[in-house]
Amino acid sequence: MLIKFRTIFLAILFFVNSYVAFAEIIIQPTPDQGLQPRLSVDDNGNVHLLYFKKRINRPASREGNLYYRSYDHETGQFSLPVKVSSSAFSMQTFSIARASMAITEDGRVHAFWYYPRTSEMIYSRSNPERTMFETQRSMVSVFQEGIDAGGDIASIGSSVALVWGAGKLTEEHQRTMFARFSDDYGKTFSDEVMVSNPDLGACACCSLAADYAGSSDLVIGYRSAIDGVGRHMQVLTLKNINQGITGAFYGEMSELQEWEASFCPLSTNDIERMGEQRWLVFETQNRIMRMELMSQNPVSAVGEPFSETRQKNPALAINHIGEQLIVWGEAISHSRGGRLNLRLLNKDGSNAEYSFTENIMINDYSFPAAASLPNNDFMVLH
Fold it and tell me: N or C: which end of the chain has fewer CB within 10 A?
């Protein structure tokens, strides 16, 4: 079922009444009865979808494959599915182990995901025509201990970065971030390297988000585990990574927001580009927050929940005129997707007064995804 919403408000400009329409938001289930959708927009405005599909559509079934589809804005339809994973695997029911996707300038789609049964981080890339994917590769062998959640993948030009967290699960305060880098469209990758200060730790049950900031810098948003309880949101900046990296090195660290918690938050976050800006959305103390990373603007809360429930699993999309759509789920357990909520923001960050009261339930074991379309409208999948 496809749902479209458009909010209209009355504006007075030069004493003339005129109606101004916000972006249209198209909300629909993930195609193919898919779960855990990830949407990405390339530099040409094309929308790409990565999702998990069960082999047997039964509640207890967990085995399936990753699939890729592109979106045709003119027809409003997704292309036929292309299988990404070379073999079926058991879906991780926690949203922290989500697969991730990036697109290089040659048109290739790059996917990075987690195999929970064997604690592996898996990578595959498509051909430039995106009609097939190469045989998947296991990418982590040296720093594999304690991998318990998904990593993230980022790309710019011909560069690809794979990032993940690892270390003993019983010593979260010593876990840290690791990465591998490619400058040939993912054909080859550097050795595994440590990229963050292990004194900060790294939450074993929280995901991370990464994106390039310019052609040679990488920003990573992740949750620390200082003394096992300081699960603060951190941003790690790696500079000049295209000059070659050998051995461990620590990027520049900035703490965004504190969260003292002795429990596992199971939190996720998302980064989206807007020109030179990199916006991060994340969860702190049960509420979705947003921040622009490059200018270190203050952290701000996105919006109130429908009721006093936990907000989780945010995704962010930004259109060409600077409007931001943030989507998330509410009233969630480790397996229940919860109820979809969203907030539309103007370019200046003010609330666009977009009214959303629909009771749309996210599939169990899933989460929402968002993308901007070429005409500045938005698409939301659940």
Answer: N
